Request: fold
Amino acid sequence: MAFDDLRSFVSELERRGELLRVRSLVSRDLEITEITDRMSKLPNGGRALLFENVEGSRFPVLTNAFGSERRTALALGSTDLEAVGDRVSDLLRTEMPRTLGQKAALAPMAMSLLKCFPKTSRGRAPCQEVVLKGDDVDLGILPALKSWPQDGGRFITLPAVFTKDADGKRNVGMYRMQVFDKTTTGMHWHVHKDGALNFSDDRRSGRRTEVAVAIGCDPAVMYAATAPMPQGLDELILAGFLRGSPVRLAKCVTVDMEVPAASEFVLEGYVDHDETRLEGPFGDHTGYYSLADMYPVLHVTAVTHRRDAIYPATVVGRPPMEDCYLAKATERVFLPPLRMLVPEIDDIWMPWEGVFHNIVAVAISKRYPGQARKVMSSMWGNNQMSLAKMVLVVDDASLLKDGRRLLRHVLDTVDFASDVTLTDGVLDVLDHSAPAPLRGSKLGVDATARAAGEDARRRPRFKLTMSGQGVLDALRSSGDGFLGCRVAMPDAKAPLILVSVDKGGAPSQRFKEAIRASGLLDQGVFVMYDGVDLSDGRLLLWKMFNNVDPERDITIDDGVIIDATRKGLADGHAREWPDEIVMSPDIVSRVEARRGELGL
Ligand SMILES: Cc1cc2nc3c(=O)[nH]c(=O)nc-3n(C[C@H](O)[C@H](O)[C@H](O)COP(=O)(O)O)c2cc1C
Reply:
């Protein structure tokens, strides 16, 4: 099923019981976030939310529309995301036709491919029912959200940002935009992304950077804006393929760009080459704030919209939230092309706790020595996969369906002396663990069976004899600040000894030395956290993937210590360490008190 626009997707969600209309008055400052966050954390992502009565806005706000596998699959014209991946796979498997029959059999495929290409419509586009130019431009009409307490302002969070390269080829990317005032916003394209590339090419050649931003298009276009398409390939072709019909475009009114005609809102404008402004902080999808930094500025020359436009927004934060399902779609859609480049890959999995750039688990069919390392290198050399901090390689794809089994497999299999590869390279802008931004250490873990020609693993060196309390008592007698200890997977070959500490400004090194001095390194793999609930496995994994810089924070010698604490100057970490996102207690209690009225 293809949707012509966002509103037909909303209608379909409602028909399927997948939408909750919130009729009570709500504030777009924090309150919509708290409501959406609660919804996102319900089993299977709860329902999409349409806030019909938003303080200070005449437009309704839609959140959590992509917030489940079912809804994202529906958005991409399918019943489940595996099926979306299968369609891409079928397309790529197409073979050279040899007989007349084979040629004839290809005709429907060729016809459907022709439908992928966008078409420009004549006549007045729905997205231009209202046109505001010059002094009439006022971004204040958009119900942009302030999502989290420390956010630097209100942000447009689901924009499809259109730019062109020097040859006029279109790029569509999703980059959040902080609303600065009536006519300007931030343009938060990370340096690794194609929007930033087009911008820097323009700056070098002195070409004006025109930008159009579609907010609320048919959901296949909204997804395509987030998809890591190879440079130079138009995301609208992907959207056309997914929806099975061309995206209809309209010419913008003040810039030489085209946008989906059925968009709810369109912003048109330009980005000056020499202007930057402080953008952020912003409560990000890592579950931490991304820190304020200098970014280019979009000057808006026109706002056009549908008369009764729906404003879509997403709220990101500690997973699971809506963006997890967009990422899951990408995992499925881009697996077939990835397998063309790295054919031994059977499957991949980006667990939510890894917030996409922190860990990718890869299952391969291994045939020869060193192959797991080859796959790691391929991943780190491949488009946005290159941003992955950790690559874990296994050779049983069923492990990727069950995080607990996967972890157990790693603990039972990995020889920390020979299966762990440290390297360095590019890191996601949102990585806060590395001492320097944008680059740093990376970890590869080979948990595949040994192939002929590979050295045998050393036998396990761990032997757990103590309880968590016993370990805690011993740690306390060798140092201060140990708050708690729990042993996870005690019968694994490498049990996990989870320790919470109160660093109180002291360096992690002090605690590592105390662990070492306790003589307990042979009990298992130690993982250190700042005082946390050690029974919450998802919280622990999320913190570990976010907070560990592999080179600095994983010590492998007489034993293994992983330091997942917050780092500061005492640890030699000169960069600011971001806070975890937490909602203000007054907003939490306000929403709690209104639960019944809000329909939660
Ligand atoms: C909700 C959401 C918000 C995003 N915000 C940003 C952002 O602010 N900056 C950025 O560079 N990427 C952001 N991304 C990721 C990009 O959209 C994604 O990497 C995309 O493939 C970039 O496209 P490009 O390579 O064509 O530039 C976001 C993704 C989602 C789902």
Observations:
- Residues 157, 171, 173-176, 188-190, 193-195, 226-228, 314, 316, 323, 326, 384 surround flavin mononucleotide (CB under 6 Å).
- The chain has 17 helices and 28 strands.
- The first helix runs from residue 6 to 15.
